[in-house]
Structures are given as C-alpha cells and as structure tokens.
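Quick check before the chapter quiz. The format below is the same one you will see on the exam, so make sure you can read both the input and the output lines.
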Amino acid sequence: MNCYEKEIKSILLDMGYEVLEKGWPDFLAFKNDRMIFVECKSEKDRPLKHQERLLNVLCAFGMEVYIIREPKKHDPPSWLMKMDRFKKEGSWKDLE
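Here is the expected output.
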C-alpha cells in the first residue's frame, strides 16, 4: 500500500467505515448498511482495462463505486480532494 492509499484508508476510517484492503478495487469500505468500493489513482493514472471492466460490473449491479484521485500539488489538503463517483464528479460529503 502506497502513502496515498494509506491516507485514503485513514480518511475512510475517520469517517466511521471499516476498510478491507486486500481486494479489488483497492478498498471495500462499509458502515451501518452502506458498502462502497474505492479505487485510488494518481492524478494521471487511469484504471487498467480489467479494473475498468470490474468497476463497470459493480456499478451495473447497483454498487457504489468511487475513484479517488490524488490531488495536484497546488490543490487543497487531502480532506478536500476531488473525488469521482465512477465517471461522475462528487465530493467527500457523498460518503457521509
């Protein structure tokens, strides 16, 4: 797990989620009756074909799937990072 993934895991834990990290995508996080799938990518990185296929399948079955992108150097602190719901913009408030 790289430093960025550790930071995202910490944020999810702080938000009250339990986080499983041995998975596909990077994290399966859940709290109460909510479960989300999180894939962490660098600013320029894109999901590989097999990852995109899996993320699309999860979305097709109604799962909440997020790609969280690492901020650019001039962006706000990590807790304000832009977050994409798979192919759709969102914010951290979507996870509360």
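If your answer matched, good. The chain has one domain: 3-95.
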